[in-house]
Amino acid sequence: MSLLEVREVNHSYHSKKLFKWKDQSNRALIDISFSIEEGTCLGLLGTSGAGKSTLGKVVLGIQRPQQGQVLFQGYNIYNTDKHTQRNIRRNLQVVFQDSYSSVNPHMTAERIISEPLDNYEKLTLNEKRKTIISLLERVGLSEKDLNKYPHQFSGGQLQRINIARAISLKPKLIILDESVSSLDMVTQRLILELLRELKDDFGLSYLFITHNIKAAFSISDSLGVLEKGELIEFYDRKDQFFSS
Ligand code: ADP
Ligand code: ADP
């Protein structure tokens, strides 16, 4: 069984009919099917408007598609009981692009990282602090960073904090939604390196959504190309295309 399976997903946005003669429906996703095996990274490459964010939201469970199914460990994420939903949510984390606007500026690194732990684990204060320090160290930061606020970090460091938060519950799958796209080339390379390490160390799986072909190649085991809502091409690491 695949960790994640997306089956014939279709989704359109309907805007208000301003002009009766114009078809106002916008097909954002058309017959999308793919799967992600445990411990692998699937890259989804596409230009702006291709449907990447919509697909990210569909997989994350926050945008129910009009047609099709999303199965996580065999469970239909849009049609399952509360307990399973909670279990899926802890195992499916996300790291967004714009690190500054995705965090609360009044929260310290410690609080940002501890949020998922507070929701899902019953740890003593001492245990929690120890866990957060080891998470910070795991992503290349340190205890000194516990009480700093987002504006005191660089973009790359802040993305490390978002990654620490995402791995804190030992999830199965992380959706990386343009997670390195706003970083400079050098920082991008370092964050990709960290992501690859974490993937190997913990058997993590990624859905790596990006418009950046180089980044996608460097981390993905297989790669899909999304264009105008359709998955038009698919490559595997084994294909020659990858190694060229
Ligand atoms: P990408 O992330 O690849 O840029 P999106 O998933 O954001 O693509 O968008 C796919 C298509 O759906 C685009 O044509 C976009 O204009 C449209 N779209 C996205 N969100 C909405 C929305 N909330 N309402 C209407 N149309 C939308
Ligand atoms: P330590 O043994 O000092 O905690 P590890 O390298 O084993 O160091 O773990 C570092 C951090 O990574 C820990 O805080 C732990 O919560 C987290 N971690 C451990 N296993 C996993 C996993 N399977 N997925 C994601 N994060 C994990």
TrEMBL record:
Residue ranges constituting the ABC transporter domain according to the UniProt record: 13-244
Coiled coil: none
SUPFAM superfamilies: P-loop containing nucleoside triphosphate hydrolases
CDD domains reported in the protein's UniProt record: ABC_NikE_OppD_transporters
TM ranges: none
PROSITE patterns for this protein: ABC_TRANSPORTER_1, ABC_TRANSPORTER_2
Pfam families xrefs: ABC_tran
Gene Ontology MF, one: ATP binding
Residues of the signal peptide: none
Record key words, sorted: ATP-binding, Ion transport, Nickel, Nickel transport, Nucleotide-binding, Transport
NCBIfam families to which the protein is assigned, alphabetical: nickel_nikE
Protein name: Nickel import ATP-binding protein NikE
Organism name: Alkalihalophilus lindianensis
Lineage: Bacteria, Bacillati, Bacillota, Bacilli, Bacillales
